[in-house]
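> call design_seq(struct)
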């Protein structure tokens, strides 16, 4: 182990001189709290911050630096030796999990209940730091709910990933990317893949000339799909798998998706409706996610007959369909979605509902153009970056009696909740779901209402 004093040497060095890499340097450290991103915080004796993976709060470990230089604001590291383990630690069930291996799972080494507590701590910390909200302020009891069927004993792994993107190495072998790296960990099985994905046997065959192979196994039907991205100059292989599949291809140059054979879509189910999801478009990944989130949104909004609603970032129409059914023919729902193909699917999926209209384009540009000045309800489910200040400011002027915010990133959620507070909205309830077991990801549903109402 090198001396810890090495880490602080560069702090006073002029910024223009190249700083020495600390990769490989080892530090014996006490592990502090969990941080957003699947790691915990530690400090070297000189006070330099380390973000350490493969560890748990309260442990004493030897952390080996994986990224960072002298004088950097923080270093990234892996716990390579655990000197004093947490009572929440188990042996990672997956042989491909651990320092320097697959980067897909962050918490394989934590008991399932501990994983959910860690995620709850991250959500609480983000809410407090970025929105000034305690769990009590947010109407949240602090728990993170597992999806139905996922409450398994330690050592058993929920098979939840209905989409897995395998990276293909130069020899054509399928694997998964290492953490923050283009390097590939070859795998013969991904433990969190759903049975439908595993049954395809992607890992059992070679994929010469491919850069990636994505496997999709629908939950709402037996539809199976493989999405191939060729490496430069790579020729598409004949796809013969253990189960029949449709095949799509991603164009290397512009990322456009094309059908090679079979169906261009998979069929999913939620709230008693079938949704077509075409050309590798977005659908919730966990088999229980669509219904879990839909129920949380409907319970929070409680749509009434004749109300008007917006479904922003609506994808193929998951929430728009459920709200439209509840507001009935006298009500109206406007969905906005940027993806052209997703909009075609949403229009197809909700064609039997004359009270739904779907507009294509970015929320930030389409919404102001609609001329809408008021609505009763809003559901928004933005991508990881969140909705942002301008959009939240606009939404806060529409007089909605309830807003449901579905968030896959608690930091973006907290930032947007702070903007909503500026716009006169407060959080009525927050529910947090573990729809991504073994990883650091977590899904939140916040229900907002005008602050004056609850004051
Ligand atoms: C998290 S997904 C939610 C989709 C849908 N609510 C669901 O649960 O199936 C976010 C969606 O927002 C779309 N999107 C991303 N940025 C957007 C923007 N600026 N305006 C409108 N839609 C956007 C994406 O194409 C994607 O379909």
């Amino acid at each position: 182990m090198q001396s810890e004093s090495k880490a602080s040497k560069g702090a006073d060095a002029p910024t223009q001189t190249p700083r020495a890499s600390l990769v490989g340097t080892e530090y014996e450290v006490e592990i502090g709290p969990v941080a957003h991103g699947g790691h915990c915080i530690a400090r070297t004796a000189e006070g330099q911050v380390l973000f350490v993976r493969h560890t748990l709060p309260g442990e004493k470990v030897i952390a080996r630096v994986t990224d960072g230089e002298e004088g950097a604001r923080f270093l990234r590291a892996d716990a390579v030796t655990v000197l004093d383990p947490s009572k929440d630690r188990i042996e990672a069930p997956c042989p491909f999990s651990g320092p320097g291996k697959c980067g897909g799972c962050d918490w394989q080494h934590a008991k399932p209940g501990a994983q959910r507590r860690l995620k709850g701590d991250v959500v609480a910390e983000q809410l407090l730091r970025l929105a000034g909200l305690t769990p009590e302020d947010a109407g949240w009891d602090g728990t993170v709910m597992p999806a139905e069927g996922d409450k398994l004993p330690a050592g058993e792994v929920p098979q939840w990933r209905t989409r897995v993107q395998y990276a293909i190495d130069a020899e054509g072998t399928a694997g998964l990317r290492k953490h923050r790296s283009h390097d590939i960990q070859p795998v013969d099985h991904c433990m969190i893949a759903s049975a439908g994905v595993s049954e395809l046997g992607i890992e059992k065959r070679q994929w010469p000339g491919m850069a990636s192979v994505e496997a999709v196994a629908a939950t709402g039907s037996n539809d199976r799909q493989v999405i191939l991205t060729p490496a430069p100059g790579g020729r598409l292989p004949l796809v013969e798998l253990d189960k029949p599949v449709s095949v799509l291809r991603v164009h290397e140059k512009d990322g456009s998706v094309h059908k090679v054979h079979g169906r261009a879509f998979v069929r999913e189910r939620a709230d008693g409706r079938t949704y077509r999801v075409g050309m590798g478009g977005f659908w919730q990944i966990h088999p229980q996610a669509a219904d879990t989130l839909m129920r949380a949104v409907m319970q929070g909004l409680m749509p009434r007959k004749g109300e008007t609603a917006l479904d922003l970032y609506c994808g193929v129409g998951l929430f728009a369909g459920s709200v439209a059914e509840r507001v009935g023919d006298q009500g109206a729902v406007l969905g906005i979605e940027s993806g052209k193909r997703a909009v075609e699917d949403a229009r197809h999926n909700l064609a039997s509902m004359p009270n739904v209209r779907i507009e294509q384009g970015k929320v930030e540009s389409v919404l102001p153009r609609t001329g809408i000045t008021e609505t009763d309800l809003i559901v928004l489910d933005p991508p990881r970056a969140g909705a942002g200040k301008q959009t939240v400011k606009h939404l806060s002027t529409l007089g909605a009696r309830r807003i449901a915010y579905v968030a896959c990133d608690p930091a973006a959620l907290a930032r947007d909740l702070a903007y909503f507070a500026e716009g006169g909205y407060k959080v009525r309830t927050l529910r947090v779901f573990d729809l991504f077991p073994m990883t650091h990801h977590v899904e939140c549903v916040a229900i907002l209402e005008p602050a004056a109402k609850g004051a």
